[in-house]
């Protein structure tokens, strides 16, 4: 069985056997060739089947059924938010806030507990208005600094999560969710 996953202009494929993965990969290459589409074969552009990979900014381990954030990306994010987490910086530009919010929203796809820890920064940014110059500076609140501290701890301790697909049970044994 093969399942194709599309994301923007990227495509990923999950197969039940190694042979099916290679067969699907070769079929996909043939389909692109017949359609006249050129493929880039640089590392990370058109990769053959593998058990561990980094795809669209996530580390994926198909054997362990886990996905997470790449270690170097997490280190960079921790370094970015550290000055506000330790209190050495009190001000932030709109550009920095946008970059941090984007990174935290991406990270919250894996670190589910972190979803509630960027609302304070988003609230401050929304209160300033929508037509702001990227270099505009604003003062961060104690809540934003606490949020950055929490994200620092979360990124140090929760780098992987289960890659299960949730399915809603209608009846047995009770209404709820479980993995597929």
Outline:
Helix content is 40%, strand content 22%. It has helices at 18-34, 71-85, 94-107, 119-128, 142-157; strands at residues 2-7, 10-15, 52-55, 58-61, 66-68, 91-93, 137-139, 160-162, 166-169, 176-179.
Q: What does the model show?
A:
The model has no long low-confidence stretch (mean pLDDT 78). Helix 2 (71-85) runs antiparallel to helix 5 (142-157). This protein has helices at 18-34, 71-85, 94-107, 119-128, 142-157, and strands spanning 2-7, 10-15, 52-55, 58-61, 66-68, 91-93, 137-139, 160-162, 166-169, 176-179. The chain is an alpha+beta fold. It starts with a strand and ends with a strand. It has a 4-stranded antiparallel beta sheet, with no helix packed on it. It has a two-stranded antiparallel ribbon with strand order 1-2. Strands 6-7 form a two-stranded antiparallel ribbon. It contains 5 helices and 10 strands.
Assembly level? single chain
Strand tally? 10
Strand order of the largest sheet: 3-4-5-8
Mean pLDDT: 78
Keywords:
180 residues, alpha+beta, two-stranded antiparallel ribbon, 10 strands, 22% strand
Layout of helices and strands, plus pairs?
Layout: E1 2-7, E2 10-15, H1 18-34, E3 52-55, E4 58-61, E5 66-68, H2 71-85, E6 91-93, H3 94-107, H4 119-128, E7 137-139, H5 142-157, E8 160-162, E9 166-169, E10 176-179
Antiparallel strand pairs: 1-2, 3-4, 4-5, 5-8, 6-7, 9-10
Helix pairs in contact: 2-5
